[in-house]
Design a protein that fits this description.
This protein has 361 residues and is of the alpha/beta class. It has helices at residues 3-23, 66-85, 91-98, 113-127, 192-200, 203-206, 220-233, 245-256, 280-285, 297-307, 310-313, 316-328, 344-355, and strands at residues 29-33, 40-43, 48-51, 55-59, 89-90, 136-137, 142-145, 148-152, 155-158, 167-168, 177-181, 185-189, 209-214, 237-240, 274-277, 293-294, 330-331. The protein folds into two domains: 3-137, Winged helix-like DNA-binding domain superfamily/Winged helix DNA-binding domain (Arc Repressor Mutant, subunit A); 181-355, Dna Topoisomerase Vi A Subunit, Chain: A, domain 2, CATH 3.40.1360.10. It is 41% helix and 18% strand. The mean pLDDT is 92.
């Protein structure tokens, strides 16, 4: 059975189950796992975040649940039609497709996109299919370059022949077929500006690697692409991020998975990922103290929170980084390395760190 047919069948099962409940004179109820930190645990064997067994109910004849129930059904209906027509819709499209006033009331079905986004994630749990398989996708926010040739919906594309902008990573990368991959490792960075420096200096060509970027927190499409490159070609994955708690968390999400998407860890997490930099040791080694940025109270609160996560709390190397952030009351951006020269990062910093295996795990 094709993926499209499997996804459609799951939606039909949901609808049929609700019809059966109604025919038996019962108020319709949707059962789904709880998506919260309280129902997420760290599996030390697989080294990934996993969703627990706590369940919740969405009851139609419950004032507190009714609106969310309707939202979920509307999103399911949109997905059903998209699968039937063989078309995809962005998360923003879905929001507008269900945005209207509930008949007979002055209440809007959704007021903000976060509401429809949340229902889409719930639908993933209910159907056991990702939103991409339900034909709902996020905006493209990543670029990649390297000596790689792929087949994407019938088009042969060479990542090293896409000019200064590189290949734009789609939301859904399952349909990509790799024809040739000539690389020693993959380097992911959170900032597009840093990626542009590496691309202009042709770091990927000189060092036989693949470079990937996003704008801040990595997208699901990028995480899945990284996982495929690791699983299918055994390429090491290195993360380059700012020396702050958000950079550490970006690394954590790629390595272990995220709390909100613990149900997707199997298809996204890469436990072997290594953190390349920037680190406190780099600040000392390259004399970047004058280029630090003072932390805000929100940064300090976030450090306390992230440092206590089970997958971080017993990691001495990361705890040391967190302690130094607090001690200096500061953070540092990757671009601080530019103080040593515009191409310092490509000509000295990265080659030396990778050669000497100066990673944090």
């Amino acid at each position: 059975m094709a993926k499209k047919e499997k996804s459609g069948e799951k939606l039909r099962e949901l609808g049929n189950d609700l019809v059966k409940q109604i025919n038996k004179g019962k108020g319709p109820v949707i059962n789904l796992p709880v998506r919260a930190l309280s129902n997420v645990s760290f599996d030390k064997k697989s080294r990934t975040l996993v969703l627990g067994n706590k369940m919740a109910q969405r009851i139609f004849f419950n004032v507190a649940h009714a609106k969310k129930f309707l939202q979920t059904m509307e999103v399911a209906s949109v997905s059903k039609n998209l699968l039937k027509e063989g078309k995809h819709a962005s998360l923003r499209d879905v929001f507008y497709m269900i945005k209207r006033t509930i008949p007979g009331t002055k209440v809007n079905l959704v007021d903000d996109q976060s509401e429809s986004d949340s229902c889409i994630e719930d639908l993933e749990l209910i159907t056991e299919h990702s939103r991409e398989k339900l034909n709902m996708t996020a905006n493209k926010m990543g670029s990649v370059v390297g000596n790689v040739t792929i087949l994407d919906r019938g088009d042969t594309i060479q990542w090293n022949k896409m000019g200064s902008g590189g290949y734009s990573i789609p939301s859904t990368v399952e349909e990509i077929e790799f024809k040739k991959v000539n690389a020693k490792y993959v380097l992911y960075m959170e900032k597009a500006a840093v990626w542009e420096r590496l691309n202009e200096d042709r770091f990927w060509e000189k060092n036989k690697c693949i470079i990937i970027s996003s704008q801040g927190q990595t997208t699901r499409g990028i995480r899945r692409l990284l996982q495929r490159l690791y699983e299918e070609f055994r390429l090491p994955i290195y993360v380059l991020a700012d020396w702050d708690i958000y950079g550490a968390y970006i690394y954590s999400v790629i390595k272990y998975g995220s709390i909100a998407l613990a149900h997707m860890s199997e298809h996204m997490a890469i436990p072997t990922v290594k953190y390349l930099g920037i680190t406190y040791d780099d600040i000392e080694k390259y004399g970047l103290q004058k280029h630090l940025i003072k932390m805000k109270d929100t940064d300090k609160d976030r450090i306390k929170q992230v440092a206590s996560y089970e997958w971080f709390k017993d990691n001495k190397d990361w705890q040391r980084q967190f302690e130094m952030m607090k001690k200096l009351d500061a953070k540092a951006e990757i671009q601080a390395l530019s103080a040593r020269g515009i191409s310092f990062i490509t000509e000295k910093y990265l080659p030396e760190k990778i050669k000497n295996k100066e990673f944090i795990e």
